Structure formats: C-alpha cells, structure tokens
C-alpha cells in the first residue's frame, strides 16, 4: 500500500487484507501440484479397497477443519478482547472521561468571559484579577491530575494496540492458511469435475463415477464453501481489530493535542489577560494624572491673571520719578542694543546647531525605520 494521507474506507481495508492473504504465484504452483497429485489418486482409486476409500473420505472430511477450528476459537477470544478494549475509548473510558473533564475545566477558566474591570459595590469588595488567579491556582491542580489520568489512559491504549496487533497478525496467518486451503479445494474441484466428464465420455465404470461425484466432489465443495464463509468471518475480525486500533491511535493523538496545545493555550490566555488588566490600571492612573495636571495649569493661569491685574493697578497708581524713568529708558535701550548684538552673533551658531540637530534627527529616523522593518518581519 503506497504512502497516502487519505483515510482508507472499509472496502479499501478489505482489499488490502485480501491482497495480503492471497497466495503468491509460487504458492499457487505448489498448490496446483498437490491438487494434481490428489486428483490422480482419487481417479485411480480401487473401489474394491475399503481402506483406500476410507483414507480418501477421511481426508476430505478433515480437510481444513483444523484451520476452521483455530479460526473459530480465535474469533471467540477476539470478540471478548475487542469488546473489552473498545470500551477504553467509549463515553465511560478513562481517556474520554479525562478529555471531558479537561474541557469543563478550560471552559470554566476562560478569561474572555471574566469582567476584570468590574465596578460598583461588589467590585470594590474584591479584586477580580486576584479572585480569578485564586480560581486558576485551584483548577491548575485539578488539571494536573487530569493530565496524569490522560497519560495513564494513553499508555493503556498503546498497550491495547500492541495486544490487538499481535492478535490481528495471528488471525491474518490463519486467514492466509484458509485462503490456501480454499485455493487447493477449488483446484481439486475443477480438476475432478473435468476428469469425471472425461470418464463419462470414455464410458468408464459408472459406480466409480458416482462414488467420486457423490462421496468426494460433493463434500469437497461443501467444505470449500465452509472455508469461504470462515474466510469472510476472519476478514471481518481483522477489519474490526483495525478499526479499534485506528480509534485508539486517534485518542492517543487527542491526548497529545490536549497536553501540547490546549493547556498551553490556556496559560497564554491567562498571561495575556493579566497583562491587559495591568495595562488598563496604568492607563486609568495616567488619565487621573492628566486631569490633575490640567487642574494645576488652570489654577496657575488664574493666579497669574489675578495677580498681574493687581500689579498693573498698583504700578499705575504709584508715583514714578522722571530721572528714574530716564535711567530706566537708557538701560532698556542699552539692553536692546545688547540683545541685537547677541542675536547677530548667535545666528551663525544657531545655524550650526540646527545642522547638528538635523543630522541627529536623520540618524534617529534611520534607526526607527530599521526597528519598524524588524517588527514587520516578526523579528
């Protein structure tokens, strides 16, 4: 059977089984030789010899009986074994029960349904994040026990599959032996039938023809039919075992997914929920700080306005000396001249400073663009 990711149907499985138990050409050739030898002995039988007739009839009666008996016993044992092992994966099995309990725990711990920003009277009595993590810590121990139970169930399933594969191989060997016996019987049937027709044409002893037809060919065909029925029963048993093995493998993969993916997803969800809650708290504090800052700025502006008006009023009403005003005017003009000189001297330095800041800004922009490219690439 070639490599494929497609799930085979029951017919495909049966076809594979039939191909596996089908005799190879070398075996068919060997069976043909045995059939020819047996038919020659039957056709050359001396009817007067009671011992020879008894030997052939006993061989026909015992043909395939050991294989049929072994197959029947094996199928009876397998019926009990498969029935018991298949319960491992049903609704009451350890693995199925563990997966159901794990699902309930994860659903109860889903952080997306928890209101971490709960306000009001109840919100002031307890911290929703603290309450959730206390709940998570309690459930974490339960989840750990469930995982241990799942591991035990997975080990049981693997052991069951080992047992089933051994039994399946044994049943395959019996089925292959049945197939060979059926092939031998059919080859003998075909040859005997042809030999009888030839004997009738040659007008050989009618009593011998009747004996071979009724006492040899008839029970031989009956036995071939019995062997074919047992072959079908064995094939059904092999397919039933295969179904149980495949179901067990699916359950084993389900346990691995639950451990490697589901529980990891829960831990990530809890971590993200905690981080988002902390971010929200910081954001609320920043908003409160901004409101306080705005109030301070507004209060300062009002104080400047009120005090500036009072100062202007007092300056207008006060007596000012002319000499003082002249000196002040002279000082102001001198200060203006100094400022003008300073500005003229500062212009070249400012241009140089601006150029330096521009170079720094370009360097910073290049670094920012490099960081943004790294984020887009997921680095």
Q: What are the SSEs and their pairings?
A:
Layout: H1 10-21, H2 25-43, H3 50-62, H4 65-86, H5 94-108, H6 121-125, H7 128-201, H8 206-317, H9 322-376
Helix pairs in contact: 1-8, 2-7, 3-8, 4-7, 4-8, 5-7, 5-8, 7-8
The tally of strands reads: 0
Distance between the termini: 44 Å
Overall tally of structural domains: 2
Helical stretch tally: 9
Fraction of residues in helices? over 70%
Family: Belongs to the TelA family.
Protein name: Toxic anion resistance protein
Describe the fold and architecture.
- Helix 1 crosses helix 8 and helix 2 packs parallel to helix 7.
- 16% of the residues are buried.
- 86% of the residues lie in helices and 0% in strands.
- The longest helix is centred in the last third of the chain and has 112 residues.
- By secondary structure, it is mostly helical.
- The chain starts with 9 loop residues before the first helix and ends with a helix.
- It has 2 domains: 279 residues, no CATH class; 41 residues.
- The protein has 9 helices and no strands.
- The N terminus is likely disordered.
Keywords summarizing the entry:
mainly alpha, 379 residues, 2 domains, 9 helices, disordered N terminus
């Amino acid at each position: 059977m070639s490599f494929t990711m497609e799930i085979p149907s029951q017919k495909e499985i049966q076809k594979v089984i039939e191909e596996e138990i089908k005799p190879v050409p070398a075996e068919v050739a060997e069976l043909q030789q045995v059939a020819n030898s047996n038919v020659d002995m039957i056709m050359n039988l001396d009817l007067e010899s009671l011992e020879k007739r008894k030997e052939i009839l006993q061989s026909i009666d015992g043909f395939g009986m050991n294989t049929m008996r072994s197959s029947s016993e094996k199928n009876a044992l397998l019926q009990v074994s498969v029935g018991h092992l298949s319960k491992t994966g049903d609704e009451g099995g350890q693995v199925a029960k563990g997966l159901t309990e794990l699902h309930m725990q994860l659903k109860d711990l889903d952080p997306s349904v928890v209101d971490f920003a709960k306000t009001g009277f109840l919100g002031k009595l307890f911290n929703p994040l603290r309450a959730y993590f206390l709940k998570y810590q309690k459930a974490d121990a339960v989840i750990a026990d469930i995982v241990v139970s799942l591991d035990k169930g997975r080990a049981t399933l693997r052991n069951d599959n080992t047992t089933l594969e051994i039994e399946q191989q044994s049943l395959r060997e019996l089925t292959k032996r049945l197939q060979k016996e059926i092939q031998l019987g059919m080859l003998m049937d075909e040859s005997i039938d042809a030999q009888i027709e030839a004997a009738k044409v040659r007008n050989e002893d009618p009593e011998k023809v009747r004996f071979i037809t009724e006492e040899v060919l008839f029970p031989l065909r009956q036995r071939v039919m019995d062997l074919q029925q047992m072959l079908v029963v064995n094939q059904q048993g092999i397919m039933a075992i295969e179904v149980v093995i495949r179901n067990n493998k699916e359950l084993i993969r389900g346990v691995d997914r639950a451990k490697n993916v589901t529980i990891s997803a829960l831990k990530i969800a809890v971590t993200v929920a905690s981080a988002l809650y902390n971010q929200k708290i910081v954001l609320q504090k920043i908003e409160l700080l901004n409101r306080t800052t705005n109030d301070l700025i507004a209060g300062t502006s009002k104080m400047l306005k009120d005090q500036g008006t009072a100062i202007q009023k007092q300056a207008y009403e006060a007596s000012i000396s002319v000499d003082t005003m002249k000196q002040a005017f002279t000082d102001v003009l001198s200060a203006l001249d100094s400022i003008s000189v300073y500005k003229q001297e500062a212009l070249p330095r400012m241009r140089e400073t601006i150029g330096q800041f521009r170079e720094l800004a370009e360097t910073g922009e290049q670094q920012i663009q490099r960081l943004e490219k790294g984020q887009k690439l997921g680095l």
